[in-house]
Write a structure and sequence with these properties.
By secondary structure, the chain is an all-alpha fold. It contains six helices and no strands. The protein starts with a helix and ends in an 8-residue tail after the last helix.
Length: about 220
């Protein structure tokens, strides 16, 4: 295998590791919200335990990417591909952290019945999860149109977040403790969607070689 072939092979490995990281974060976010919705503290604890796998894989990606830079001294599109990989890994890992935070909120609420409808939260979460799936697929396909679509979905999440927070704050029957946890969950979902949008921006940079602010 020649030098260029070996480098292309390593770039493919980097891409595969990122997709794997995205799959882990997607599963973590999905399981965390299922635990929250069903008030399943055991499932929430499993989400906490699984976070170490995400952290380890992100570190592995960073180490692998830095090794490629040191060994190959890439320029232009190759260097962009590696730098973008590091940035995307950081955003994915942060999304997994928000899954952990949702799991922690679930444990804090415990078996107290939800005194406030979580319809907006469910809708926000569904859109955010779809944004992550689309972002990972867009990264694999280097699809800038899909990246722009993610920004439109983020606007939907932001709109629902505003409605959700207004309803939680104004709900007279809900205890302060539960209001706090519901507000935290809403914020964690909204911030996760922002990180998915960051991924979309980095995909655009990877393909076009220029930055596009999708978080306007």
């Amino acid at each position: 295998m020649g030098v260029r072939e070996k480098f292309d092979y390593d770039l493919t490995i980097l891409s595969q590791k990122l997709v794997q990281l995205g799959d882990l974060a997607e599963e973590s976010l999905d399981q965390a919200f299922k635990a929250f919705e069903s008030q399943d503290c055991e499932l929430a604890l499993r989400v906490l335990e699984g976070d170490e796998q995400v952290n380890m894989l992100e570190e592995e990606i960073n180490d692998f990417a830095l090794l490629l830079i040191a060994k190959q001294q890439p320029v232009a599109i190759d260097l962009r591909r590696i730098i973008v990989g590091i940035k995307i890994a950081a955003d994915i890992e942060r999304m997994a952290d928000y899954a952990v935070n949702i799991a922690k909120a679930t444990i804090r609420i415990g078996k107290q019945p939800h005194l406030h409808p979580i319809t907006e939260l469910k809708h926000m979460h569904a859109i955010m999860l779809e944004m992550l799936k689309l972002a990972i697929k867009a990264y694999e396909d280097e699809d800038t149109q899909a990246a722009k679509q993610i920004a439109a979905m983020d606007d939907q999440v932001d709109h629902l977040y505003g409605i959700c927070m207004k309803n939680i704050i104004s709900a007279e029957e809900v205890t302060f403790q539960q209001k706090s946890q519901l507000s935290f969950v809403a914020r964690h979902i909204e911030r996760s969607a922002d990180h998915a949008t960051n991924i979309a921006e980095n995909i655009y940079y990877l393909v076009r070689g220029r930055h596009l602010d999708l978080n306007k």
